[in-house]
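Before relying on records like the one below, remember that each one covers exactly one chain. Contacts with other chains, cofactors or solvent are not represented anywhere in the record.
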Amino acid sequence: MGMVVMTYKVNPDSSVDDVDTDAIAEAIKALATEDYDIQQVETKPLAFGLKFVQVHVKMNDGEGLADALEAQMADIHGVGEIEVLSMGLI
């Protein structure tokens, strides 16, 4: 089985007041397991003082692994939309 590297853009939930993107970043780092090698988590500016979290993760190219990680990230308080910025096999 091959490996896949994915880059996600995790936007804060606009319906939640005072979303802490740094807390979201720390919660995403805590999702690292032997299935998910979370290589880098960065908080980046979006617009008008808003920020988003960019996540670089390496995982096996197994069925359902990416969906499971996205579901875990979506369960974090304050997470809104999750967008795949890039995906590639290694």
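The chain has a mean pLDDT of 94.
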